[in-house]
Fold:
Amino acid sequence: AQRVTQPEKLLSVFKGAPVELKCNYSYSGSPELFWYVQYSRQRLQLLLRHISRESIKGFTADLNKGETSFHLKKPFAQEEDSAMYYCPPRAGANNLFFGTGTRLTVIP
Amino acid sequence: DSGVTQTPKHLITATGQRVTLRCSPRSGDLSVYWYQQSLDQGLQFLIQYYNGEERAKGNILERFSAQQFPDLHSELNLSSLELGDSALYFCASSVGGSGDVDTQYFGPGTRLTVL
Structure:
């Protein structure tokens, strides 16, 4: 069964510090993984996807098949990064399985 | 606004009642998805429609139903409401329905409060 685990519901870091939001997956077949973000009073939106291997707003995420992880990283956190982050794997068709997410707070 | 729209923004109703939530997808998108977001369950996928047909089902209760109309807007019907149905209901849309994964674009959500 497809499952994603974001072990931290809440994560606080100081501005300028590195941040890593953890995402571990259990997936049969080849996973397709994403990070979605929801800023305060804004819509949930795609941040990045692993097949693009891109960096968005300074964030990167590498798929580690050995560890079945897709952690989201940024070397220097900014206050505007405070948001809810979700790491949903694709599961058939175009369905995404979201979980409880991680709320990131960047402390000024 | 050519993005996903949802109405109403807020809905307050009583237990046992029935409500309908409405979603209009982005122009050109054929797929519509419904999600329920609650504090304890997080964001849960309910159901997906593609070009008027049900494509996939998630954790949708039997008391809930949805449909997608010829103009591609969708409605989520929630009946025999219970206190636990209070949540934020999101609609998302994407271009396609299967194959390569499309980016899903989310609406602002409808906040349902059941008293």
